[in-house]
Design brief:
This protein has 341 residues and is α+β, with helices and mostly antiparallel strands. The chain is 43% helix and 28% strand. It contains 9 helices and 12 strands. The protein starts with a strand and ends with a strand. InterPro entries: HATPase_C_sf, HATPase_dom, His_kinase_dom, HisK_dim/P_dom, HisK_dim/P_sf, Sig_transdc_His_kin-like_C. Its EC number is 2.7.13.3.
Amino acid sequence: MSTLVAVLRADDGAVQFANAALENTLGLSRRTLEGADFSAFFTDPALLQTALAGARGKDFAALRYEASLKRLHQDPVPVHVNVADAEQVGEILVELWPLEQHARQDREERLRDQAQANKELIRNLAHEIKNPLGGIRGAAQLLEMELDNRELTEYTQVIIHEADRLQSLVDRLLAPHRHPHLVGDVNIHEVCERVRSLVLVEYPQGLKVQRDYDTSIPEFRGDRAQLIQAVLNIVQNAAQALSERVAKGDAVITLRTRVARQVTFGRQRYRLALELHVIDNGPGVPDAIKERIFYPLVSGRDGGSGLGLTLAQTFVQRHHGLIECDSVPGRTDFRILIPLP
């Protein structure tokens, strides 16, 4: 839902202008709204009346509070209200954000901040691990060459094998920061088809990957390889979560593309955005990790590295987008949003 905007006359609080988002929310036309007392559209009119009196008296530059906005034939909607002087003398600007949208924006901001903190932590930690790891592996190799008892080489082989496994993990942690962002024209359906073919090779039986494409979606500038990896990580996660259904033969993953119009994410408004859904009919994300699934090394399955979704979020954020997750038992929906030209 967009920001709701009303411009009021300062002397009596009558509506001078209402944007389309406010009209839609109230279920009233602009003609009906113009000239009406705006405070009458709130469950507690006194809150706005007090704020308008303060604005007229220049008691503040801007005032924020929470209220409930009435809607025609619907329940009131909780909103965050901002009252401030408008550019024109004698007018007051009132902006309203539905609290659900406000909470979502806060959540997106926390995700971005967390992603940045994760990136710095991972990069520093990986570099700290990398050097001593090489020393451990080298020392194990030298020790193995000096051992007379060949049975003892089993222990040195364990050290070497585990060092190599950790090295592989470190390389994966550093991968997004090592490769340059190679921008070209991207067709999202070519990305989806590539991912689909890769997953079906890995799961030839028991898994159906359905297509639900909007073929009108235009190409956009992006890094095709990174987007393939991001979508592949999400789809592979879904396939792994569907293991029981794969065994039964009724596992389904749906790749759905749509154009979202006039959407706000990352505290920016976009006229058009790609909306790519990866939907599965699995057990859902465990409640214990729902709020942390994009954190590094957090996994909902035994043996998982917990890097797939972290890397996917990193690659999508490089395209000024974000990934959201909505999950209940029987349906998990990962939604990728990327601005379109």
